[in-house]
TrEMBL record:
Active site per UniProt: Y155 (proton donor/acceptor), K184 (schiff-base intermediate with substrate)
Protein name: Dihydrodipicolinate synthase
Family affiliation: Belongs to the DapA family.
Ligand binding (pyruvate): V227
PANTHER family: DIHYDRODIPICOLINATE SYNTHASE, DIHYDRODIPICOLINATE SYNTHASE-RELATED
Lineage of origin: Eukaryota, Fungi, Dikarya, Ascomycota, Pezizomycotina
Length: 339
């Protein structure tokens, strides 16, 4: 029996397909760990030259809950300047707008639009998890999407939302909203992904995986990309999986997928290990030699020496591949369809 396809019209503005990095926040080594905007500028440009199809700020990897409202705006303005200076002023920048109230999320959406973001990424509210009924959950997304000048991406990550999970029924209902365009499934639920991709075309409602270790399964199932913390460390390799697959070189893509999946295991352990990995493998390339630049913001602590060595051992499988891939150059070219 065939699946009933959605008859929703195409959305006015969709998130371009591909691999996105949820960019880490980098700090000064001062006691209050101010945002190091020069470091983040250099990192942003490196990620774009590394082939990333878009950047995400103020998500989980960006430590959004540890940043002030003013810091979030400043980071987004800095990111937009970084890509504009590279020659790709319309490059996709996604901003996390997750708040615990509808009002807060709407304010963050307005801030993000004014600061130069292109799209908004929104977690469900979770402070009183038992009170987040189906009506509350869906109403929250619809109310924020009504007020947001940016298209909204539903971010599903039960691990940081007290177990609240946007199921396929919720996402199918929310896809009906003209300003809700996609979902990021950090839940890793491939069955949910298939239910959504078999119902909606990518121009009605797009589906992205929440990491690159299942990017090929995501693409084979009808998804259009992923958002991966691994991009902070090895952007060229992670973006290349998508590029190979979309160009029809699926065997090569699968071979690279296997290596990336092993390396990404470190990112799955903790954000502290992702940030350490970025500092260890990428810091010198960016001229960032102070390990404290890559520390989590307090009260969270950097990994101990044993965890650091384990991370180096696990991630090192990608070093040769990463170093073999040439950077992209921009100015008069295009990135992901943007001029």
């Amino acid at each position: 029996m065939p699946i009933t396809k959605s008859t929703l019209p195409k959305k006015a503005k969709m998130l371009p397909p591909g691999v996105y990095t949820p960019v880490i926040s980098l700090y000064t080594s001062t006691p209050t760990q101010e945002i190091d905007h020069s470091a983040m500028y250099a990192h942003a440009q490196y990620l774009v030259r590394g082939g990333m199809h878009g950047l995400v700020y103020q998500g989980t990897n960006g430590e959004a809950v540890l940043l002030s409202r003013e810091e979030k705006k400043a980071v987004l303005r800095n990111a937009r300047k970084a890509v504009t200076d590279l020659g790709v002023p319309d490059y996709p920048i996604v901003a996390g707008i997750s708040g615990q109230s509808t009002n807060e999320s709407i304010e963050l959406a307005k801030d993000a639009e004014e600061a130069g973001a292109s799209f908004a990424l929104l977690l469900p509210p979770s402070f009183w998890a038992k009170s987040v009924t189906e009506d509350v959950l869906r109403g929250f997304y619809r109310d924020v999407a009504d007020a947001s000048g940016l298209p909204v991406i539903c971010y599903n990550f039960p691990g940081v939302t007290s177990g609240i999970d946007l199921n396929s029924d919720d996402l199918t209902a929310l896809a009906d909203h003209p300003n809700i365009i996609a979902t990021k499934l950090t839940c890793g639920n491939v069955g949910k992904l298939v239910r959504l991709t078999s119902t909606f075309s990518p121009d009605q409602f797009s589906v992205y995986g929440g990491s690159s270790d299942f990017l090929i399964p995501t693409l084979e199932a009808g998804g259009v990309g992923c958002v991966t913390g691994m991009g902070n460390v090895f952007p060229k390799s992670t973006a290349r999986i998508y590029d190979l697959w979309i160009s029809g070189k699926k065997d090569e893509a699968r071979q690279l997928q296997e290596v990336v999946a092993h390396a990404e295991w470190a990112c799955k352990k903790s954000l502290a290990l992702t940030k350490f990995g970025a500092g260890h493998f990428l810091g010198k390339k960016l001229g960032l030699t102070d390990p404290k630049t890559f520390y989590p913001r307090r009260p969270y602590a950097p990994p101990n020496e044993k965890a650091q060595q384990w991370t180096v051992d696990v991630m090192s499988v990608l070093v040769e591949e990463e170093d073999s891939i040439a950077e992209k150059s921009f100015g008069k070219g295009q990135v992901n369809g943007t001029k």
